[in-house]
Amino acid sequence: MKKILSLVLILACFALLLAGCGDKTKTENVTVTIVDKNGEAVLALEKVKAKDLDGDDKITIYEALKAAHKNCPNGGADGFAAEDTQYGLSMVKLWGEENGGSFGYNVNDGMPMSLAEEVKADDRIVAYFYLPGQMDIYCKFDKQIETVKKGETVTLTLTAFGYDENWNPVPRAFEGATIKVNGTAIEAKTDAEGKITLTLDKGVNVISASGDTLVPAIAKITVE
Q1: Are 45 and 220 in contact (CB under 8 A)?
Q2: pTM for the model
């Protein structure tokens, strides 16, 4: 009996040793939205497990977006690329498309200086194409991930961000945005306060707001 007990303890210690020798690469779950060159959300508030690729024990915007391209139909992870420029690490390819480096990205609705900036668990990244010859207006819904019960209405408020002379963001309600539910435009548009009230079908509904100069805002509403 003593021999059996000793063997069990040895095997248990060996298992613990193997577990301690596993892959300890840092990972974080971040939320990613990618808007393609046609203004459509190819990823809509998707949870992505980002991995520390360079061993510096932090997760960057670059690493999160690289992970988000795992299932990109245009090259997988190679559908995203960046290079060092005078402005820091900058995007040169998004969702398999080059756009002359004319891309934008935001973290938690703020504008980072470089793709090399660190992100934390549950941060929200939005990456998008700029239209030729213009800097589109970034906007967001006040509710981005929400759960409601069947038959309930949900009211979303759309805020657009301009900038003052010092490049500080200046928010304003955006009236007249086109609203799509699961990719289909509806007749109603945002009112003077930027509001839209919807009654949605059961399941997960992806809501987008777009316009001629807007980076589409995305919300994901689940109806139980």
Answers
A1: yes
A2: 0.85
